[in-house]
Design brief:
Bound molecules: zinc ion
Pfam families (chain B): Thiolase_C_1
Protein name (chain B): Lipid-transfer protein
Helix content of chain A: 10-25%
Strand content of chain A: 25-35%
Number of domains of chain A: 1
Domain Thiolase C-terminal (chain B): 256-371
Largest sheet of chain A: 5 strands, antiparallel
Largest sheet of chain B: 9 strands, mixed
Structural class of chain A: alpha+beta
Order of helices and strands of chain A: HHEEEHEEEE
Number of helices of chain B: 12
Oligomer: heterodimer
Strand content of chain B: 15-25%
Distance between the termini of chain A: 36 Å
Order of helices and strands of chain B: EHEHEHEHHHEEEHEHEHHHHEE
InterPro entries (chain B): Thiolase, Thiolase-like, Thiolase_C_2
Largest interface: A-B, 40 and 40 residues
Number of strands of chain B: 11
Strand order of the largest sheet of chain B: 3-2-4-7-1-8-11-10-9
Organism (chain B): Streptomyces luomodiensis
Distance between the termini of chain B: 15 Å
Shape of chain B: globular
Radius of gyration of chain A: 16 Å
Amino acid sequence: MTQTDTTTAGSGGSGATGGSGRADGLLAPVPDEDGAPFFRYAARGELRVQSCADCGEPRFPPRPCCPHCQSFDSLWTKMSGRGRIWSYVLPHPPLLPGYAAQAPYNVILVELADAPRIRLVGNLVASADAALNSVPPERLRIGAPVKAAFHETDDGLTVVRWLLERP
Amino acid sequence: MKDATAIAGIGQTPFAKRLPESEKTLACRAILAALDDAGIAPSEVDAFASYTMEDTDEVEVAKAIGAGDVTFFSKVGYGGGGSCATVAHLAAAIATGQASVGVAWRSRKRGSGPRPWTNTRVQLPTPAQWTRPYGLLRPADEIGLLARRYMHEYGATRDHFFNVALACRNRANQNPAAIMYERPLTREMYMTARWISEPLCLFDNCLETDGALACVVVSAERARDCRHRPVYVHSAAQGLPAQVHGMVNYWNDDPLTGPSWTAARRLWKTADFGPQDIDVAQIYDAFTPLILLSLEGYGFCARGEGAAFTEGGALEIGGRLPLNTGGGGLSEAYVHGFNLITEGVRQLRGTSTAQVPGATTCLVTAGEGVPTSALLLRS
Ligand SMILES: [Zn+2]
């Protein structure tokens, strides 16, 4: 079974696979039908965003039709993986146990360089597989350039994480 | 619609961290108290409006209180965004002849009950698949992210958030029903409080509370025969902006102009007065930064000026816009904003514990960040 097949199996859109609990206690995304391709591409190390096959407008989160021209045809456009921190927050307990264990950690919102209105929620980490608190909070800065990294969670789904361009 | 209906009765239970009775019992107590306040028999009630995340439905309430045949009922989505819409729906139903006596309520046991987001493990459908796995677990985290950006863009500081927390606390200190009655807040307490989600600390967050509230809406004509001075529903609106995405509204052109902007445009359009004529405001305050966003959205100041607006005691009694005069969600009770409606009524009756002298107009708003609603009340 290829890596792509593995992630596809977890993205059937039912959300009822019970696979949302990971050994590290973090929540795994439960993709719906529209969002599943994002995770399939992530598993290949690609950051792709849904865009309209007719007018070309990118959209996020993924959905069935284009809000600009109402077309139901979409493409998944490859992004450079570069962006900037639009904002960030540092959650402290009380939190779910898996998150409390790493708190305070960061959650960042990244504005993509190729599509500025596409902003992805993620984590700034020291390396793709490092902990959510692996970058010291004082390194976080709005506007800081970041690049995408890909972390395979322990239930087989790949999530996009972020590294500082200038670590 | 304008002034065609009025709030004729209000009622509430005690507010506490823990109350022994069930949500259903509390709901019935608040509703019966509101009907008694109006001087209307429960058998005359023929309309109900509630909002989601309410565990007691209208069938149970109608049965328990002894309502008559009900000809209108509605339920508004998006949690705290629905508070004002309940009154708006009843007002519309009564103004169009679909019903004659409407009841809206909110009953919650969030002080002693579970928080919805402690159960995120099994709640990861769209849109949460894009946010929760990354640790954006609670509303405080979602709003904290917007607050950080707002601070960055407009130079807002924690002192501005404190101005909001303090105004609400000062009013709660005057309100014996408030959970934070006789519990003053100082700047030092605020600045040294534990973080919940930086940049938000403990005092930037609303109180988890047990309690219930209700109000009775009737035609303006009927209200004039009730026990108290009528409080007219002058204007009402809901707001679900283009491309909105709920509390994590990060994917439109401008995430810092939220649902309040949409509701406000309609609200003022159908009103005889404007923001400059508002004597007192009850603005949804689940988190302090929401007030700054709402001050801008509802037109009390320009975009980016919400923080500066709070300076110099503007939100205190005697200030430019006395705010949340019962203490609000931050310091009276967090019951999904329904206490803001009842406090608006008290101000216009002249019976608030922090009365704004001669108040005749009041803005009440519902949850900002989620699809929302708002009311202009006048006496
Ligand atoms: Zn299109």
